[in-house]
Amino acid sequence: MSGTMFWDLGGKHASRQDLLNVVGSVYTAVLFLGVQNSSFVQPVVVVERTVFYREKAARMFSALPYAFSQILVELPYVFAQAVTY
User: Fold this and answer.
1) pLDDT of 48-85, one tens digit each?
2) Is residue 4 one of the residues assigned to a domain?
3) What is the 3-state secondary structure (H, E, C) of the chain?
4) Which of 65, 66, 64 is nearest to 52 (CA)?
5) Which end of the chain is more exposed for a tag (fewer CB within 10 A), N or C?
6) pLDDT in tens, 16-54
7) Residue 80: which domain range?
8) Contact indicator for 77, 33 with CB cutoff of 8 Å
9) Residues of the chain above pLDDT 70, percent
10) Residue at 2 is within a domain
11) Would you say residue 10 has pLDDT above 80?
């Protein structure tokens, strides 16, 4: 819905205000995607936190490889969303 407000905005570049409008629309889109990704990740993190604490207490793995694997798992989804955008 917010994308329709900025439809065909990239073709207008006659003044400084047009450029600022384009930059603002890109900023808004990136901020929206960040908030959307955060809201999708939060429930997963809440569920996996107890598993992480249990496995860390049992000395099955450390925090750094776990965090790296979580980032690695999310990369294809974020990349696909960025390409789609």
Assistant:
1) 888 888 888 888 878 888 888 888 988 898 888 778 87
2) no
3) CHHHHCCCCCCCCCCHHHHHHHHHHHHHHHHHHHHHHHHHHHHHHHHHHHHHHHHHHCCCCCHHHHHHHHHHHHHHHHHHHHHHC
4) 66
5) N
6) 888 888 888 888 888 888 888 788 878 888 888 888 888
7) 15-84
8) no
9) 93
10) no
11) no
pTM: 0.55
Name the domain count of the chain: 1
Per-residue tokens: 70: 């979580």
51 residue type, one letter: V
Rounded to whole angstroms, the Cα distance separating 10 from 84 reads 18
In a domain, 52, yes or no: yes
Residue 1 domain-assigned (yes or no)? no
Q: Which residue has the tokens 């798992």?
A: 73
Predicted pLDDT at 2: 64
